[in-house]
Specification:
Blueprint lengths: L3 H4 L3 H13 L2 H8 L3 H15 L4 E3 L4 E3 L1 H25 L7 E7 L1 H6 L1 H11 L3 E7 L13 E4 L8 E16 H7 L5 H4 L4 E2 L4 H10 L9 E3 L4 H9 L5 E4 H4 L5 E2 L8 E10 L6 H15 L1
Parallel strand pairs: 3-4, 3-5, 7-8
Antiparallel strand pairs: 1-2, 5-11, 6-9, 6-10, 6-11
Helix pairs in contact: 2-3, 2-4, 2-5, 3-4, 7-13
Length: about 300
């Protein structure tokens, strides 16, 4: 049985630590929570005392997370997400959330990963309007081109809230028809004699292939496109080999991995939002559903 006395601490103190860590200072966290700075400082000190660890190193310029603080931060973020979901469920607010939320995602993520999550969202918040920007161009959340973005790299802007969901695995795919026509490669060198599709800028991809023992040139790329959906269609029609996420490639029985020895590619998935996420109910709801649906 869980020892509840050991795990008991004040949620307000936990929230004070979480927001202070994300805002980077007591003054900014106090503003975000609507508290005075002395009150917030006491709450942070209180949770440090309750846990018996030092969470921040206090310098003249800023608060820096200690190693213990860094290790605990993700756990407290999970608690914060759970608290928001509990609040929505307990008050029945999900059904009454209205307004519009703009989601920016790559063409591939928008087509293959978003629809199941949006279907669940429609059930939980039927009055909510969703606009999707399906583009490989990165939307500027600071300028409010979108409320939430799904990206493959961690944002560098400290004013954005980012949550790493999971890594997506990608590998080579080609149609059985194409491989029956040209033959299946036995060695990495054989790939250099074959055609590739689906790369918007082959020059950027040659190094990736070279690092995996495949020496290609721009002549290997007979079809270029920024669209993952079009790339999938071209690969299925036998135009050549492409790199696709496993979840997409395995959905088509006419596709196969032409060279299993090729090292798989890990692609990060980050969910990114403006700091309004903390105070905007509809953005919070969509963010949490995306995190649960895509992060699994």
């Amino acid at each position: 049985m869980m020892e509840w006395q050991r795990s008991a601490f004040d949620w307000n103190q936990a929230r004070a630590f979480l927001v202070t860590a994300e805002e980077g200072s007591l003054s900014a966290a106090a503003r975000a929570l609507g508290l005075t700075q002395p009150t917030l400082s006491r709450q942070v000190a209180g949770i440090e005392e309750a846990l018996g660890v030092t969470l921040f190193e206090r310098t003249s310029r800023a608060l820096l997370l200690t190693q213990s603080g860094t290790e605990l931060l993700e756990h407290f973020r999970s608690m914060g997400d759970a608290a928001n979901r509990i609040s929505l469920t307990a008050t029945g607010q999900s059904q009454t959330v209205t307004g519009k939320v703009v989601i920016a995602a790559t063409n591939g993520m928008a087509t293959y990963f978003l629809p199941p999550v949006l279907k669940e969202l429609r059930t939980k918040a039927p009055e909510l309007q969703i606009e999707i920007i399906a583009s490989n161009e990165m939307s500027d959340l600071r300028r409010r081109e979108a409320d939430i973005a799904i990206r493959h790299t961690r944002p560098q802007d400290d004013n954005l809230i980012a949550k790493r969901l999971r890594d997506m695995t990608a590998q080579l795919y080609a149609s059985t028809q194409y491989l029956n026509e040209v033959g299946r490669p036995s060695h990495a060198a054989d790939l250099a004699k074959m055609q590739f599709v689906g790369f918007d800028d082959p020059e950027r991809r040659l190094g990736l292939m070279t690092s995996r023992g495949v020496n290609l040139t721009t002549a290997n790329f007979n079809c270029l496109t920024e669209s993952v959906t079009l790339s999938v269609a071209l690969i299925r029609q036998g135009f050549g080999i492409g790199i696709l996420p496993v979840e997409i490639g395995e959905a088509y029985p006419e596709l196969e991995n032409p060279f299993p020895a090729f090292e798989q590619i890990k692609v990060e998935i980050w969910l990114v939002a403006h700091r309004e996420l903390r105070t905007n109910l509809r953005i919070r709801l969509v963010f949490d559903l995306l995190a649960d649906g895509i992060g699994q």
